[in-house]
Amino acid sequence: MDKLLERIKKEPVLESFLRAYKDGMSALISGVGDEFLDYLITLVAGEDRPFFAVFPTEAEAKQFVDRINEEEIVCEYMPPREKIYYEIKVIDDKVQKDRLSVFQRMINGEVKLIALSLFTLYDFNLNLDFYRDKIIKIKKGDRFNFEELISMLISSGFKREPEVSSRGEFSLRGDIVDIFPICGDGLVRIEFFDDEVDTIRLVDSDSRLSTEYIDEVEIFPSEELIIDDYTKKSLIDGILQDLEKKENREDYKKFDIILEKLRDDSYSSEREILFSYFPEELKVRTFDLVKDYNILFIYPDLAKKEILSYYEYLDMELSHLYLSHEIMDEDIYGDRLFEPDAIKEIKNRSFYVSGLPYNINDVLNFELKIKSVPKYGRDFNEIFKDISKYENEKYRIYLSASDDVKIKAVEESFLEHGFPYTYEDSDENNIVITKKSISNGFVLPSINLVVFGDLNIFGFGEKRGKRKKSKSSSNLRIQDINVGDYVIHEDHGVGEYNGVKTLDIKGVRKDYLEILYKDKDKLYLPVENINQIDKYTSKEGAKPRIYGLDSIQWKKTKEKTRKAINEMARELIELYAVRSKKEGFQFSKDTEWQHEFEDSFKYVETEGQLMAIDEIKADMESKKPMDRLLLGDVGYGKTEVALRAAFKAIMDGKQVAMLTPTTLLAEQHTKTAEERFKNFPVKIRNLSRFRTKKEIDKTVKDLAMGQVDMVIGTHRLLSKDVKFKDLGLLIIDEEQRFGVKHKERIKSLAEDVDVLTLSATPIPRTLSMSLSGIRSMSVIEEPPHNRIPVQTYVLEYNENIIRSAVLKEINRGGQIFFLYNDVKSMEVIKGKLEELIPEARFFIANGQMSERELEDVFYRFENKESDVLITSTIIETGMDLPNVNTLIVYNSDRFGLSTLYQLRGRVGRSNRLAYAYFTYDKSRSISEKAIKRLMAMKEFTDFGSGYKIAMRDLELRGAGNVLGLSQSGHMAEVGYELYMKYLNYAIGELQGKPVRETLNTKIDFMVESAVPEGFIEDTYIRMELYRRISNIQTFKEKDDLTDEIIDRFGDIPEALINLLNIGLIKNIASKHFVKSIIENNNIIKIDYAPEMLDDVDMAKLLKDFPDGLRFDSKLPIIRISIKVNAIETVYKFFNSAFGV
C-alpha cells in the first residue's frame, strides 16, 4: 500500500468502517462521491475477505474494472447471463466466456474482487460444484481412451471442429488434440503415444506454435448451461409437464422440436429458454455462489431504481413472449429481488456505500466528511492561491499527474511561483508531487489532506486502457477458395475452380487443382504452383469473362493492363518528382503545448496511430510540402491523428482547413475538434449548410483576416469567396467522394500547403509497400483498445425476436440499425415494424434519397430523434455513431462475407457490448454456401481467419480507391496478385531498379507429392498449406514450415515431405531461369533459358559432377544421372551451380 493510501486509511470514519468490515459487522458509509469511490473500494480490497462490488449499472461495473485493473488489483467483471428465450444461434459468445472465466477464477480462489450489477447479484446461476465436477484434469503420463476424452470434452460444452479457431472448441488430428479453453492466453496441445499422454504444450493462439511444455492442465467447461445425462432428463421432464398443461399443444410446436433435439443430442441454440427446467438443486443466486464473499452495495438507492426499471422491461418482454407462445410460463424468470438490504441470509456480510445519507435498519452508520476540489483548467494562479490557503492550515498537499509531460508542467509552475515541493512522501514534507492516475481530487478535512488530480489541474484526466502490443498472425487458414469460385491464372486467365484432384500418372499419385475454362477446357495445376492463381474478386454477383485455355483475348487483356499500369506508374513518379522539388513551410518541433494537447487525449493510442503521427510530423518538419494518405477503418482514430497535425500547424500560426464530403461528417468533426481544443485558445468554425448565412459570411470574413485557426466544412470551403490569410494544412476526408470540379479546386488550394488525406477503406499491405517510394502512406490497422467484440446471432427471421432486440437496446438508451436492402418496399417494412413495436420511432435512409435528404435523416438520427434507422447498405462505410449498438440484418444470406463484416463494424464503437442479428427467411430455401458464410462470422474474432477473408475483399476495394476507377477495372480483370506483379515491374523499371522476372518452372518427379486428406482433413487449411509451400524460398523457410507442421499435426507423411522439397526446388529454379526439371528413366533433365548460365558457377559445377552430368550440344538442356534420388540430385546441382 502506498503512502497516500496509508494516510487516507487513518481517517477516523474510514478506520471505523474498515474495522466493522473486518469484524463482519454490517455497516453503511455515506458521503462518498465518485471522486473517492475507487479509494474506498481499494481500501476494502486491502482487507482479507474477497467480495462482490455491486454497482447500479453494468456500464459502471465494467468501467470500474477497467480503471482498477490499472492499479493491479485482481478484479473481474461479471456480466449478467443474456435473457434470450428463443431458438437462436449465438456466435462467439463473449458474455458466456466472461462469466465462465469468473466462475473458474472463483473456484481456483484467484480473484479478490468481482464487480457486477445488482441485477446480476440477484440473478440465478448453476452452482460452482456443478462446474467443479466438469473440470477435466490431464497429467503427463495419464492414460485416456480417445473416445473417452472426446466424450468428456463434449459433455463439458466443447465443440469439435476440424481446426480450432475460437474459445470453446477442440480438434483432433492423428495423435494430437488441440483445445482452446475459455480462460488463459492460448491453446492447449496434447500429444498421445498410443493411449498415454506423451506431452502437454501451451500454444500461441496466433501462430499456433508451441510455446511451453507443461506437466498438467485443467480444462474448465466451455458452456454455462451444460446438458449432460442428468440435466437432460430434468429438461425433458419439465418441458413435457408444461406441454401437458396446454390445451392447444399445436401453438407450442417449437417445444416439441426442442424435445426432439434434446433426445438426439443435437440442441445447439441459445439455452436460456431451458434454464427454468434445470434441476432446482443446481440453481443458486450469485451472492450464494461462494458464501464467504462479502457484498459491497455501491449507491444502493440508484441500484434499486435501475433494477426496478429492468424488471419493468423484463415483465413487458415476458408477457409478450407468453402471448406469442415463445415461452410456456409467464413467470419463467422466478422471484424478483430488488431491495439491497432485503435478504436476511446475507445481512451479516453486506456493506453499503452511499453518496447521500441512506437509511438501512440494523447496520452501523458512518458519515464521511469529504469535499471536492475545483477544476482549475491550467489556471495555476488560482491553484496556488488555494495551495497557500491549505498550507497555512497545515494541510498535507498532493498534486498528482498521470504522466511525465504533466509532471513537468506542474514542476515548472512550482518553480515559477516559488513554492517548495518534493517527490518524496515523508512526514517532513508538506507538498508532494506524485506520478499517479488520479482523475479527480478531494479534501479530507479530518486529517488535513488535499489531493489535486489531473482533472482538477489540467481539465482532463488520465488515458483509459492499456497499450497492447499487436501480434501478427501466421495462422494457416487464410486463403478461402471454394469449389465454384472463380480464379485467375497468369497464362490462361479466369477459370472456375473445381477442387483438388489426386491423379495417378505413370503409377505416381499427385495432387492437382482442377480449373474449368470455356468449351469444357480443363487445366490441372500441380498444387506446388498454387501461387500462380489468385481468387477472382469483384463486386458481389458480378461474373467474369471466361476464355478458352489458349485464348488470344486473354493475352490482349494482359497487354492492355500492363500498358495502363506503366502509364499510371509513370504519372505517379513524375508527380512525386515535381512534389519533391517544391519548397513548403517547415514546421517547428513540437511545443510544450503540443505535448499537453496530445496528453489530453483520454484514450491510449494504438501503435498504428503513434506511427502515423510520427510520420506526419516528420513530413511537416521537412522543407517539402507534405502529401500523405492516412488509411484506417471508421472509428480507428484517424481524426485524432489529423487533429494533432492541425494543432501543430496552428502552434506555428498557420490556418487549417478540413474538407469533408458530407455535412454530417463536418458536424461530427467539428464537435470532436471543439471538445479536443476546449482547453486551448484555438478558434474553430464550421462552414456547411447547417450554419446560417450570417454565420457563414462572418466565418468567410474572419478566415480572410486570420481570425479563425481551423475551419471544417463541405465543398462550401471550395467556393471562390473563401480566402485564407495563411493556410498551412489542408485535411481532406474521403477524397474519392469528391467530384472532378471539386478535385481541381482542391489542387489549386493545396498548391504549396501540407496536405493530409484520410480514407476509411483499408488497402493491401503489399500495395502500400509497392507505392511507398512514390506515395506517402500511413496505415492504422488495429482498432482502439476499448473495442469490445460484437455479440453475434444467426437466426430465422422472427418478429418476436426483432421486437425483443429493439426494446432491449432502447431500454439501455441505445439505437438500432435495421438493414433492409430492398428500397422499393422500405415503407412497407417500416409499417410492419411500427405495428410490431409501437414503442419505437423509425426513420428510413437509402441511396435513392438526395444527399441533402440523407444528411437530414442521419443528423436527426444522431440527435436521437429516432430509435431505429431502417437503412440500405449505405451505412457500410463512413458513419460513426457510437450510440448505435444493435444491428439487425434482414435476409443476411444475400450478402457477401466482406459486406457482412463491414456492416457489423457499424456497431460496437463504444465500450458497451453490441449485438448483431443476421436473419434469414425461413420460408425461402437458402444455399448451403450462404449458411456457411453466415456461420463463418464466428471467425471474425482475434483468433479466426474470417476477418482476413473479409479484409481481403475490402482491401481490394481500397486499392481501387487509391489507384483510381480505371485501374480498379484493370485489377478486376487480371486479379490483384497479377496486377501487383505488373505494378512492381513497372515501378522498378521507371526507377532504374528493374525487378528480375522469374519463370514458372515445371517440376515433374516420379514421387508422390500431396497433403493427404487423412493427415489434414480441413480443405481450407490444406489449400493454405499448398499456398505456403508454393512460396518457400529458402531452406530455412522449408525447415521452419516443416517444424510448424510437425508441431501442429504430428509426424509428416512422405508425400508431404516430397511436396515441401518440390516447392523449394521450383522457386530456386524459377529465380535462376530454369524452365523445367523432369525425372525420367533415372535421369534428371533440366531445360533452361540462356540467362541461367550467367548465374552458374561453372568451375564448381564441373568439379562436383566430374561424371554423370552433360550439356546438350544443340539444345539448352542439362542431363544428370540420379545417384541417390531425384530430390537429392537436384539439391546437389543447385549447391554447385548457384551456391544454395
Detailed description of the structure:
The chain is α/β, with parallel strands linked by helices. It folds into six domains: 1-127 and 285-367, P-loop containing nucleotide triphosphate hydrolases (Rossmann fold, 3-Layer(aba) Sandwich), CATH 3.40.50; 136-219, Penicillin-binding protein 1b domain (Penicillin-binding protein 1b fold); 372-458, Rossmann fold; 586-780, Rossmann fold (3-Layer(aba) Sandwich); 790-942, Rossmann fold, CATH 3.40.50.300; 1031-1138, Alpha-Beta Complex (Aspartate Aminotransferase, domain 1). The protein has 36 helices and 46 strands. The strands form nine sheets. A seven-stranded parallel β-sheet has the order 3-5-2-16-17-1-18, with helices on both faces. A hairpin with a 6-residue loop joins strand 10 and strand 11. Helix 15 (552-581) packs across helix 30 (976-990) and helix 26 crosses helix 28 (946-963). The protein is globular and about 105 Å long. Residues 466-479 and 941-950 have low confidence and may be disordered.
